[in-house]
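Reviewer 2 asked us to include a model.

Predict the structure of this chain.
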Amino acid sequence: MTDGPWLVVGLGNPGAQYAGNRHNVGQMVLDELARRTGSTWKAAGRAQAVAAEGRLGVLPGGVPGPRVVLAKPTTYMNVSGGPVSALAQYYDVPVERTILVHDELDIPFADVRLKRGGGEGGHNGLRDTTKALGSKDYVRVRVGVGRPPGRMDAADFVLRDFAKVELKELAWLVDRAADAVEAAVVKGLEAAQLEFHTRT
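Predicted model (structure tokens):
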């Protein structure tokens, strides 16, 4: 079990018109993780996704970190489950070693939280993934994008690009979320939660 890979999936929508949306922050994080592992994106078998394989982080004694399969579905967000399930089957990854990185309205912008299981909070990408996997027991790295202003519809809000003031912190947020994924893989979920949920 400890020798098997982790599957880390960044949720989002395909196409250049969506690339900068709040809804696509999960895929921004995956691009950063691919950069860290020095891996390149390739078509992932029959799964509707691109994947990159490598080792993430460093274990004690300078040993390279665990094997990871990084993936970005090429489907729309609300049908993410099919690609995630196909990737998990193809790479033989159990749900306990599957991590989804996604935007989260219920967390302030620039905060990052981790949890295993729980509800989907109206997030269609999570809901479809839970249905496809038949389990809620995957890890979620929740990247805070904040609440929509005034009476703006939540769906409209997440399908807009980050505001100019947010863009100043976006690179830092993406880096921090990538750190959270790395911590979960290398140190375990509880240690990662302690690190990222504690205010300093």
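The chain has one domain: 6-197. The domain at 6-197 is CATH 3.40.50.1470 (Rossmann fold). We have added this to the supplementary material.
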